[in-house]
Amino acid sequence: MIAIPKAPAVPQTLVGIQGVSRRFGDVVALDDVTLDIRQGEFFALLGPSGCGKTTLLRILAGFESPDAGGVTLDGADLLSLPAHRRPINLMFQSYALFPHMSVVKNIAYGLERERLSRAEVRSRVLEVLETVGLTEQANRRPHQLSGGQRQRVALARAIVKRPRLLLLDEPLSALDKKVRAEMQLELKRLQHEVGITFVVVTHDQEEAMSLADRIAVLQSGRVQQIDAPVRLYERPGTPFVADFIGANNLFEGTAVGGGLSVPGLGDLPAETGFAAGAPALLGVRPESVRLGEPGVLRGVVADVSFYGGVSHIAVRVAGHDRPILVAAQGPTRVRAGAEVGLGWSASDAVLIAR
Amino acid sequence: MAGPSTGRPPRRSRALGSAAARLVFLGPGLGYLIVFLIVPLALVLSYTIFKRGRFGGVVYEATADNFGRLFDPLYLDIVISSVRTAALTTLIALLIGYPTAYVIALLPRRWKTIALIAIVMPFWTNFLIRVYAWIILLSGPGLVNNALTGIGLIDKPIQLLYNEGTIVTGLLYSYLPLMILPLYAAIERLDPQLREASANLGARPARTLLSVTLPLTVPGILTGCVFVFVPCLGNFVVPEILGGGRSIMAGNLIRDQFLKARDWPFGSTLALAVVAILIILLFLQAWVSRAYGGIEGRRA
After folding, report:
1. CATH class of B75-190+216-297
2. Bridge partners (DSSP) listed for residue A215
3. CB contact (8 A) between residue B201 and residue A99
4. A292-325 residue pLDDT tens
5. Domain extent listing, chain B
6. Is B200 close to A61, i.e. CB distance below 8 A?
7. pTM for this one?
8. Number of Cβ within a 10 Å radius of residue B227
9. Using CB atoms, which residue from A84, A92, A141 is nearest to B202?
10. Under an 8 A CB cutoff, do B197 and A113 touch?
């Protein structure tokens, strides 16, 4: 049922996850998950809450162990190492800063466990404080910091150890919109600078799309698709991904020569590699749908919303239960109630097996 | 509730109403405190400056003698040794109680409840009976001696009763739950992610305990210590029964002044001294707890 596109030959695998499963009582958190995380990349685990992404993160950190399957780091078994001996650091969603320690002590905590000289600990802490821009807050306690500053401390505390792998649990979810955008840029810059492999866990597709080099979409404990953000958006591999990532117009039908035959709507154009007669889903993005004559479909405009740079138009088409969404550049002249034609080029629509 | 209410009573009658409501709610508790705490305490306080009556009671002639006697080595030693015994008991209770509370806090929910019930269960039996039970355990022909002779560790029964060790054992047994419960509450409340963060940063479990768990449960530790130390210091049943009836703790001394020596003023003075020690300790505990409380309250 689920087609996972084969990733191209992997140059350098840092983390190898092989057939990992984990259940909690009757709940299957992870179901035979296999994926590779490459050296130096920014990888995202994306999925709705309860999809198992946090469990996978906790397995990597060593707080949880799988019922089946294996995990390797640099080719060596990872699961046999206790959490405190793994060269992996985690930035907690709640930050989990030590409330009784100052910013400096929080950051130095991990280095002090490595039996480094005091001078070295000091210089590395100061260096990382500068990197995250918290030099002035060095002696504050966590409760004296703003949310964004706390997050920087959490990040500094994790990267100062120079881990092989940095895990980030919903890194932007607790921040307000403005700080979010700032932090997003900063995370990317930082990842570039320190050259550590980042794995971010998130339920927010925009967060994943904007940050990651590659995204693994998880649902109900299974990997749906692993791809670069653009490919994930343009060529969703499963119905779930097509619906979950971005807005999409989806039609159910059977593959025919030039696209998809949908009962009641006729033949819709799409690029197809499918054998005629195979059940499939056609997905076409709102920005690829054109309004006007002549159309593949005809409908009545139900709603127009103007967002400044873009207008969203919802068109009701008889025989289709969801309105077709159209995104047009700038303001549009169509009004609700008008009858319009809808069309798209075959190359903009994708067929998905169902 | 939400939204502007109509027909709200005028301001003054509302204020009156809320004052009346406050009185109704506070009344019983306030009355209890006044009748059973403030008045007796004031009486005890006032007795300290009068002379003793011949057959108990007080003669209302002012004197400072009672305070002078307080520093008589005879009595001072007893107070000091009581503080020592209570402190020793508290320390041992902490050393036993902390690991116990820690383990209970990490148990699955169902087992937690069972463990907590087991901790509180002894309170369902009369205190005196439980203390007497220790005599049966520790006496010459008692269980412990029988067991020890049985396995050939000793030839004849040894004296286990009527010494300071027995008193500490009895007090420890009586008040250990008062140490475990606040410790459990403090450890349970601690965000488990802090321990995970510590491990994630490379700390072994022992380091996590020392650097994260212990410092963050200091308020719970102090509460437990006060809960154990206070009743230990004032206890006179355990020293009486397990200590062989000699006045070796402040509690007995005070009781004896009232009931045997019939010296109410001096008994009052001794009681006041114990209360003073406890108040100083409580202030100390509150002060340290507040220093930590600011951290605990606003967890980052």
Report:
1. mainly alpha
2. A44, A227
3. no
4. 867 788 899 999 988 888 889 999 998 888 999 9
5. 75-190+216-297
6. yes
7. 0.79
8. 20
9. A84
10. no
